[in-house]
Design goal:
By secondary structure, the chain is mainly α. Among the domains are: 216-277, Tetratricopeptide repeat domain (Serine Threonine Protein Phosphatase 5, Tetratricopeptide repeat), CATH 1.25.40; 285-377, Serine Threonine Protein Phosphatase 5, Tetratricopeptide repeat. It is built from 18 helices and no strands. Helix 6 (132-145) runs antiparallel to helix 7, helix 8 (166-178) packs antiparallel against helix 9 (184-196) and helix 13 (253-265) runs antiparallel to helix 14. This is Tetratricopeptide repeat protein.
Length: 377
């Protein structure tokens, strides 16, 4: 009698398990036939039952069914804000149960990549509509789907900046650096955000130092670092650092351009001029050197003009015209440098704006108007 009861119990167990496996199979069949609402109902039942809730197959198809509802023209309304998270959870559980090389685990990477694209598209749509919080949320989810991809993290930083949440943007730039995306712009943007929130000098200089290790020829990073050296009365240290760098790389035009900038800040205008010209000698297309040489000459003209403007009438009658001619000579001398700088960087707004001023000083209204129009295009 006991033997019969045990057999009957075993049969009942098989029947129950078979029924639940049938729910999984029914979900798969309905999915294959494109009936996603019925597939969802079936898989939701299977995911709750003790006999199928710990099977990789159940979790994998749960992810597939929910994923294929996203953007579906008929069943897309069944998806909601949490659907991508359900999909990601399902695929993570699949790998946890099956391993990355299991029957279903090995199918997950392709599906995750598809999910990444879906979530990123949602994020971009929110971004374009300037719904920053929703965009950032989706960018963060996309980053969870593919932790090695940098696009979502970068755009999350852009969205946070647009939202004016600068501390959050800095965290995203830190994450980019952490995952190996160490471009010059990442460090540049982080520095500018740190400056915007008035971070400590030590914090900014730490970022600059890290950036220069990755990009030792970055003029921007070098110049910003020099500002902080000078601000903290470390000008001699900055000069020594630059001179050592030049000894190690004497053909580096950027180093001479930065040296000229530092010499200019220390009011060594003769030395600055020589350094800028050395930079041009090494690199005939060094924008910073041309522009800064132009500024040096322009400023000399302005100083002479200011002297003339402060003269009393009698003194001006004697010396004013000569000073104005001297100033005009400096403005004329600045012109070739600015024109060459614009040739190197044809769209540079600062150079065009300066050319308007130079031509105005020289009384050349036609050229001043030409560059003024370019500025407004």
């Amino acid at each position: 009698m006991k033997k019969i009861l045990l057999t009957a119990f075993a049969a009942a167990t098989v029947t129950v398990a078979s029924a639940q496996n049938s729910a999984v199979n029914s979900a798969i069949l309905n999915h294959k036939n494109g009936v996603l609402d019925k597939a969802q109902t079936d898989i939701d039942k299977a995911i709750q039952h003790d006999k199928t809730k710990d099977k990789a197959k159940t979790w994998f198809y749960r992810g597939v069914i929910y994923q294929d509802m996203i953007g579906n023209p008929i069943y897309g309304k069944l998806a909601n804000e949490n659907t991508p998270m359900v999909v990601l959870e399902s695929f993570d559980k699949t790998v946890a149960l099956d391993g990355k090389d299991g029957e279903f685990g090995k199918l997950v990477p392709e599906r995750r990549q598809m999910l990444y694209g879906q979530v990123l598209n949602q994020a971009v749509e929110f971004h374009n509509n300037q719904e920053w919080d929703k965009a950032i949320e989706k960018y963060e989810l996309a980053s969870k789907v593919d932790p090695t991809d940098t696009t979502a993290v970068m755009y999350a930083a852009y969205a946070s900046t647009a939202k004016q949440d600068y501390p959050q943007a800095i965290k995203f730039y830190d994450k980019l650096i952490e995952i190996g995306h160490k471009t010059e712009d990442v460090y540049k943007n982080k520095v500018q955000l740190q400056q915007a929130i008035e971070a400590s000098d030590d914090a900014v200089m730490s970022t600059l130092s890290a950036g220069l290790k990755e990009h030792p020829n970055s003029v921007y990073l070098m110049q910003e670092e020099l500002k902080y050296y000078l601000k903290n009365d470390r000008g001699d240290e900055a000069m020594a650092k630059l001179e050592n760098a030049i000894k190690a790389d004497s053909k580096n035009a950027s180093l001479y351009a930065v040296l000229g900038n530092l010499q200019e800040r220390k009011n060594n205008l003769e030395g600055a001029t020589a350094s800028y010209k050395k930079a041009i000698e090494i690199d005939p297309n060094n924008f910073d050197a041309y522009y800064n040489l132009g500024v040096l000459e322009y400023n000399k003209g302005s100083e002479v003009n200011n002297k003339a403007a402060k003269m009393d009438y009698a003194t001006y009658q004697k010396k004013g015209k000569a000073l104005e001619a001297q100033a005009k000579k400096h403005y004329q001398d600045s012109l070739p440098y600015f024109l060459k700088a614009l040739e190197v960087q044809p769209n540079d707004q600062a150079t065009m704006s300066t050319l308007v001023k130079v031509y105005t000083r020289l009384g050349n209204k036609a050229e001043a108007d030409k560059y003024s129009k370019k500025l407004n295009q």
